[in-house]
Please model this.
Amino acid sequence: MNELSLYLLDIVQNSIKADSKNIIINIIEDTKEDLLSIEVIDDGKGMSEETLKKVTDPFFTSRSTRRVGLGIPIFKELCETCLGSFQIKSQEKKGTRLIGTLKHSNIDRPPMGNIVDTIYTLIINDEEVEILYNHSFNDKKFTLNTKELKQILDGISFKQMDVMMWIKDYIKEGLRFIKEEEL
Ligand SMILES: Nc1ncnc2c1ncn2[C@@H]1O[C@H](COP(=O)(O)OP(=O)(O)OP(=O)(O)O)[C@@H](O)[C@H]1O
Ligand SMILES: [Mg+2]
Model:
């Protein structure tokens, strides 16, 4: 996988599978500190200590259809390759918090990729799941909150064609604004 958004998709899909009702995604890009961090916090079923220990092992998965779970181990490895760090904490019935940091300018750091489609895919996956997405770039920050979106849309589904276009444009514009200085 050579896009960070694909790792994010995988990580948040784990949160969704764990029956989370609220998921927070924090992406921080700080070019002054030369760091990029991706944090996902959920209130899903969490993991036992035993599962948590195994979770960074590429041969562990609780799924039965495929033997090897790769999402978390390869993300951890990527963070370490990019001179960063990885941390995961979890508590049964409470939730999970995972954070991966990479050196922003590292040659092996994958590009962000298509974060717009990733966020859109995640928010339509199950409209009952509330997602708070914060993305900051140095001093500027963009936030998308599905609770607020629902209020604005007043019962109209995120999946409706014109709503889809609007949400994607909103994210695109927000990210363009925070990254202005990079252009
Ligand atoms: N947020 C989470 N909450 C609860 N359990 C989790 C969470 N993230 C991961 N897990 C547990 O860790 C295991 C490994 O996750 P990982 O993403 O590496 O593989 P997978 O989800 O099983 O398989 P794949 O991602 O390939 O579909 C999961 O099967 C699940 O038991
Ligand atoms: Mg997974």
